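Hi everyone, sorry if this is the wrong subforum. Our group has a chain we'd like a structural model of before ordering constructs, and none of us has done structure prediction before. Sequence below.
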Amino acid sequence: MAGERYLAAISQAFMHIESATGQLARHAGGELKLAVAPTFLDRWLLPRFNDFTNRHPEIELDIHSSIGVIDFNQSDIDMAVYFGDGEWGGVSCTHLRPSFLVPVCAPELLEQERIMVPADLLKLRLLQVKKRPEHWPSWFALSQTGFHPALGIISFSNGMITANAATEGLGVALTDPSLVSAEIERGELMIPIDLVMQLPKSFYLVSQKNRPLSHPMMVFQTWIIERMARDLTEHKGLKP
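Answer:
Right subforum, don't worry. Here is the predicted structure as tokens:
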């Protein structure tokens, strides 16, 4: 009986110690308020989120889904991920990596049509982001193929919906392979023609100009640079 009472007492003490240690670690780590676009959040960050939290459990992330440029002077956001040319006023930019596009489609489409050369994709329905109609003509020009789609083009409002449509077998889409890596690994999407087109725009990590980086900001910056670099090595055709 005495042993049981002793065990119960020290077990409770250890629970208090563990709780206090966790609170101390979180306090020491701090919080990072991060803003990212919805597609980037859903397609890139969330599939890799456990990697960051497992490495840095002391950092509390407060993630905001945001479209457009952040006014850091009027916001409590610490950092944001932008996609563009790097020309934004009032911010410090860290280049992460360029964006690349490859065609992707559901494997069942490849069972219906034999895809051997870029021109074979013209036999399939093409999917695109409405505000980026130049991507498909540019990709076929890169492959030295005339742009004459046989089944037409379906446009969607953003890249996330376009990728989902490709997964559902509606056609073939152009996307950055890092944004559909989970679907490719599960076999829900395939790359029928491994021809990579690099875009003039890139991913950037931005923060308020001249603001010293806090510990959470430095930790996240180091992590995302490393993970973005890994994207370039996971697909043989991608180059920095």
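For your construct planning: The two ends are 67 Å apart (CA to CA). Residues 161 and 188 are 15 Å apart (CA to CA).
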